[in-house]
## 1
Amino acid sequence: MKITFCCTDTKAEPWLQGLCTALPGADISVWQPGAPQADYAVVWAPPQQFMDEQAGLKALFNIGAGVDGLLKLRLPPQALVVRLDDAGMAVQMAEYVCHAVIRHFREFDGYEADMAAGRWGYRKPRLRSDFPIGVMGLGVLGERVARALVQFEFPINGWSRSPKAIEGVRAFTGAEQFNAFLGASRVLVNLLPLTSDTTNLINKDTLARLQPGAYVINVARGAHLVDEDLLAAIASGHVAGATLDVFRTEPLPAGHAFWSHPRITITPHTSARTLREESIAQIVGKIGALSRCEPIAGIVDAGRGY
Ligand code: NDP
Ligand code: OXD
């Protein structure tokens, strides 16, 4: 079995070592232009030339959960596209989002400023019932996040394409229930995949439908959010602030308003990192299942876009 590795911005050596240890009989190497045909590929942001040359691949294993970048390419016609399926990301996403929600709800930024100024002062406790949280996307990551937030006893709304039943979560389904979902939510958490239906979805109209004093947490993709609409909604006072982990251009360009905005917290696309050992174990397990003609989880539906 031949496996090719083509991951931009990723140190290849430890991945190759891990894959070789787990699959001792396999021929595994880093892709170079003109390399021989492989059976399977491990990829992140590969060039189009890779796809054109590796037309005989049986499966492409993306070392991330989001496949929006991959689906922009012309893919080998028979290849399955397989995403990372949790592989240690869901718990990271849950801790990141819970931290952002609680930091905002408990006004820790305000206390931090008070401490820096030598001020000892209490803020009035806020009611959880005044902070209903809406989680957009109830897939592998969104469901885990919603379940974690339920533990803190916030009212939780969830929105997805197909109906869901998650304990403690009020489920909204499809485009027809989108406005009702927004109107029932004050904190908006985005965990949607980036598709033609979801690009620019967090815009001036959706922000205006959130409850006053809204808060936005975007951990999915930068192109879900219209940056200037968020800035305007914060300036108007309707949105209190935001925590953003993903951006239209990454790294976030110097001078972008998000860098220095006092109501916006940014992090460098780090809310749920790919964990190498978990990911290798998952990919190796799936290669084994495919070679035994068994079903695997995480196959992407290219038509749907995720
Ligand atoms: P999944 O594919 O498992 O889940 C996607 C969810 O979104 C599903 O519930 C799906 O509904 C819902 N959805 C998709 N399209 C629509 C739509 N048009 N209307 C309503 N709901 C929709 O994705 P994951 O949970 O694994 O990941 C979500 C995204 O998080 C990734 O695509 C990626 O962009 C981002 N990500 C960010 C990371 C970071 O570090 N910042 C790390 C990892 C991922 P249904 O269940 O009905 O299909
Ligand atoms: C992913 C990501 O999609 O890192 O896994 O954003």
## 2
Amino acid sequence: MSASTFPAGFLWGGALAANQSEGGYLEGGKGLATVDMLPLGPERLPVKLGQQKRFTLRDDEFYPSHQAIDFYHRYKEDIALMAEMGFRVFRTSIAWSRLFPQGDELSPNAQGIAFYRDLFTECRRHGIEPLVTLCHFDVPMHLVIEYGSWRSRKMVDFFTHYARTCFTAFDGLVKYWLTFNEINILLHSPFSGAGLVFAEGENVEQVKYQATHHELIASALATKIAHEVNPANQVGCMLAGGNFYPWSCKPEDVWAALEKDRENLFFIDVQARGAYPAWTARLFREKGIQVAMEEGDDAILRHTVDFVSFSYYASRCASAEMNEQNSSAANVVKSLANPHVSRSEWGWGIDPLGLRITMNMMYDRYQKPLFLVENGLGARDEPDANGAINDDYRISYLREHILAMGEAIADGIPVIGYTTWGCIDLVAASTGEMSKRYGLVYVDRDDQGKGSLARSRKKSFWWYKKVIASNGADLD
Ligand code: BG6
């Protein structure tokens, strides 16, 4: 690959989310959010899936998001580390309940606005472009308890009011916006994805697709508002990406993989093309789903995004015989274990070519610029006798994926940038662990929340600095 594979001005950087890094969960007037209710331990999963209702905190549980890595107080130090690596872009999210503690207030919390103004100003001071997600797995708990979260159409008003507040308050500081992080995760992890909990015997699919419709309407309206507030704003959708491979060339397996891909891509089909795909009519009929729509919704959905962003950790695999027993949700979305790819310690497949395949499929389907806003390896890091972390495994993962992204660019795909996930160690979304680390910067904190929170540079820090300085040409 030549030095010119990555275009001039390519946005290299890293990504965090408010709920996994900030902490300060009730500071500065912030309200409780869904993610604050997710404990560490065996009950985390049923709560995340909406099977176990958790509307109040318990004294006997540990909640990793409450302090996280204390980014709320340490962001200046952290942004300086990113600047040292040469970051051109930094992705984070705004905690909705920091701006609207309950979610249905008319006026925002001034302390929340001040915090994010300071954060984005600090990025700009270092020449770093903020890339901001409006909703990364957090909904104010009051909206869950009072309105049933995204089941209710009222959420469209609350969200668009919040979005307009952000576009106005941070105008001139933020240009790149994402509406919902990994919007398709609503189907796979409904409480953490969208604040949904279910009553026994309820048609879960009905609830999920109704909530989906509300999010899609809210996303399209937010896109419209962003463009009205400032035509220079660039708004993206965000997919938990990774194509499904058919287990074999048996036609039934190929069909199963196509259906699984459609389930996830449905969201992006609407956000990037502006209408429900034709096949949804049959799907809804067969699942007994009736999505309530209002007059004018079709026109609203035609406000499509400017670019398509996505996360990529692994490809997936499906067969006609796939079931609860032979599949696993190691990577949140259920998949068969592909024997042709290796796996991380947490069972997530490692498949760089799958990234090129996914990017080509997405560009063929949407013809909008792509932005790879999450990619990385969750691994255990052990400091050596001198305290150094020689994370060659992470360097190798990132190198292979950057090479695959370069190939996709050489295939002719316009790509805006790349933000590696968890550029600083943070709380894992799936398990709540700190020991599942993604960072180029190490944070001294363990799964139970003990540690000094001190930051230190890993070997990958120096490697990534070189990658950025050479615009992706030097990956050694
Ligand atoms: C994505 C999320 O699903 O994957 C992040 O957008 C998450 O919030 C990341 O942290 C990695 O998953 P995990 O469970 O290893 O943290």
